[in-house]
Write the structure tokens for this entry.
Amino acid sequence: MAKTGWPATPWSAQQWLRRLRPQADALHYTILAVDVEGFSAPGRTNLHRLVVRSALYQAVEDALAASGVRWRGCHRTDLGDGVLVLVPGTCPKAALGERVPRVLAKHLSAHNGAHRSEERFRLRVALHAGEITRDTHGFTGSAILHAFRLLESRAVRDALSASGGDVAVIASSWFYDEVIRHSPVTDPGSYVPVVVTVKETTAGAWIHLPARRAPVAVVAKGADREFG
């Protein structure tokens, strides 16, 4: 009889917990989450989406490489309409804040200028960092959940929509306070403070449009309120 992977006799709760226990204690990662705006738009066919996904992955990989981060050294989770990248804590975070938004914007500008409308795309990008735990199924942690809440927020959605650019970045308060504001190369003055409310999360964040400097009113338009 072929093996099914299930135990021959029922396992106790303790046995299941031992099998599903974390592989190691939580480790610190930089979290990069990106999402394609309107990926499921009815005007796109599956072939169009394949072109978009290919360009998305190339842009993210190149943006990380420009930051000195090895693509193969990161943990990646495909999101269908985006990708979650966990960058080891040993990689300098300032480089990610400095180069990732700029390189992504450059890639999208080139791609969108060379493709038909159904294959063009814009990105929402979330930057955060925190403790991540790994188990037999992958990675989890409140820091990942927080990054996704930022990515889903009305603030960054409306900022991208109103900007006319191709990329909108939303950084957590932690990432801004600990990384971005200490690096003049990231142009911290171009980040606008907002408060986002998504599901159980209400938190401060910072929005940046790398391809253009939009007025505060445009960037903060979709936020519940501005803070700071």
User: Anything to note?
Assistant: The first strand starts at residue 27 and ends at 36. The chain has a mean pLDDT of 87. Residues 93-114 form the longest helix (22 residues). The two ends are 65 Å apart (CA to CA).
